[in-house]
Predict the structure.
Amino acid sequence: MRIITIGREFGSGGRELGKRLADTLHIPCYDRQIIEEVAKLHGLAPDHVERISEADIRTIYPMTIGRRFYAAPMINEDRVKIAVSQQEVIKKLARQGDCVIVGRCADIILRDMHPLNLFVYADEDSKVARCLERAENGETRKMILQQMRKIDRDRAAFHELLTDKKWGEKETYHLCINTSGKEIKQLIHALAEYARHWFDSQEEKM
Amino acid sequence: MRIITIGREFGSGGRELGKRLADTLHIPCYDRQIIEEVAKLHGLAPDHVERISEADIRTIYPMTIGRRFYAAPMINEDRVKIAVSQQEVIKKLARQGDCVIVGRCADIILRDMHPLNLFVYADEDSKVARCLERAENGETRKMILQQMRKIDRDRAAFHELLTDKKWGEKETYHLCINTSGKEIKQLIHALAEYARHWFDSQEEKM
């Protein structure tokens, strides 16, 4: 099975990269579909699931930040259910065949399937520019930066609940791709080749 | 001009990767040749130059670590001469045409030429295994680990003298390649493709 996971900084183009890479390799890319399946399982609206699963996940495991637990217990049953279901959905999708999975700690959740783990990053100016392109009216650089920092902080916190491998540190991944000043589509052919060779050499060893 | 620089952790296979990548792209790879040219310029033995240029370079710029300067001035004329010549040789070689340059802060020295900057790394076990393969009789894992840490520390220190971009941090590079458990030659074709596309998109922008 050839599973590619994509960790990414907010605004780095990781989602687009995952989609394009999957298209080039003629395999599915799972991103929004994970949310939709989880929502269906629990009879919740996809937007509600997305909002919850993107929020600071630490609040569902208050034992890891003890003082906060005592100060304001924030266990939310929806969140626990969603986190557990998300793992199950990711495993189910991965078992169906080769695929790309964007975010959601798939690198850790699927580690027994030996995925190729990519991390996509960029410098702050590039990320802000990318966000501004798709921003709604009135979003400012300052607002985007705040959102970016919060989301990346939440992603790191979520990752660190599942593993001692740090989110965003190169040691956690097989290849780290800087998209600063680049259009994603320019990198795809080379990445697809990289992935093909990486899996070929993996299979030779087995 | 298409210049590729390679930063690398000791034992990660960065030197081999540079050589193979250059061969695949049919361009020269400069590594030992830099040392030889510097040695010739100063009428020194290449081994002496190599030893000096790999030593803790901070000792040639004691002003950056003030207390050490006063405690034990360690300016060594050979070292200063060699560091300066090395930069000149690297610039001269790069101006001759497309090439790969391994180590020696070429990413910083050549920044005005817009090189593609790669960083090659691996987990400790892989690096030790790679070193043991080529080790002389009697070298132990412990000795290799000590050497590895010292050399990487020196490389980081050298890099930080020239720039505030940190050696080994992904933000400093365009692509970071984890060679753990891989043979270098398995990654070369994909990397060569990556480099070609990266430069193509760079030239489109100009």
Remarks:
- Residues 127 and 134 of chain A are 11 Å apart (CA to CA).
